[in-house]
């Protein structure tokens, strides 16, 4: 009986603004004013790596993503080879899960340091420093 009265009093207090709305939120509900992330919908975002919009990366990254989606033709004979993830910066996966592609660097006479690495579940990762670091690419933006 006391519990019902307490719940009713809390509800009325919240209704008239005496309690913060977070106090009335159910378990697992974000607190009032909390910004929830949509990044979890981006393949690879659960890796903990930063997520960047494709449009925020160098234009050559967009060109490479388009080539990957089309299946080529690629500028380098090494494009599409298995990426071994020896640096262990990407989530651990079985051999053959990741593949790498060259992102051309203007003015470079070789492949340069920029790469896109794709995962078998639709992930796109970008490295601008030859696998020293990665960001998850949100190809929808």
Describe the fold and architecture.
The protein has 141 residues and is of the alpha+beta class. It has two domains: 1-36, no CATH class; 42-138, Roll (Nuclear Transport Factor 2, Chain: A), CATH 3.10.450. Helices cover 18% and strands 15% of the residues. The protein has helices spanning 2-15, 59-70, and strands at residues 51-53, 98-102, 115-119, 124-127, 135-138. The longest helix has 14 residues, at 2-15. The radius of gyration is 23 Å and the shape is globular. The protein starts with a helix and ends with a strand.
Identify the notable features of this structure and list them briefly:
Nuclear Transport Factor 2, Chain: A; 5-stranded mixed beta sheet
Any idea of the CATH class of the largest domain? Answer: Alpha Beta
Q: How many independent structural domains?
A: 2
The CATH architecture of the largest domain can be given as: Roll
Shape: globular
Strand content: 5-15%
């Amino acid at each position: 009986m006391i519990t019902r009265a307490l719940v009713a009093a809390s509800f009325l207090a919240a209704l008239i603004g005496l309690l913060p709305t977070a106090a009335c939120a159910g378990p697992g509900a974000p607190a009032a004013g909390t910004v929830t992330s949509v990044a979890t919908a981006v393949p690879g975002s659960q890796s903990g790596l930063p997520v960047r919009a494709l449009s925020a990366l160098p234009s050559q990254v967009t060109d490479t993503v388009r080539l990957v989606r089309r299946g080529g033709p690629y500028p380098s004979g090494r494009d599409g080879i298995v990426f071994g993830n020896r640096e262990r910066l990407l989530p651990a996966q079985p051999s053959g899960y990741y593949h790498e592609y060259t992102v051309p660097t203007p003015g470079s006479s070789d492949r340069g340091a920029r790469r896109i690495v794709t995962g078998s579940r639709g992930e796109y990762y970008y490295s601008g420093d030859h696998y020293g670091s990665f960001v998850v690419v949100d190809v929808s933006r």
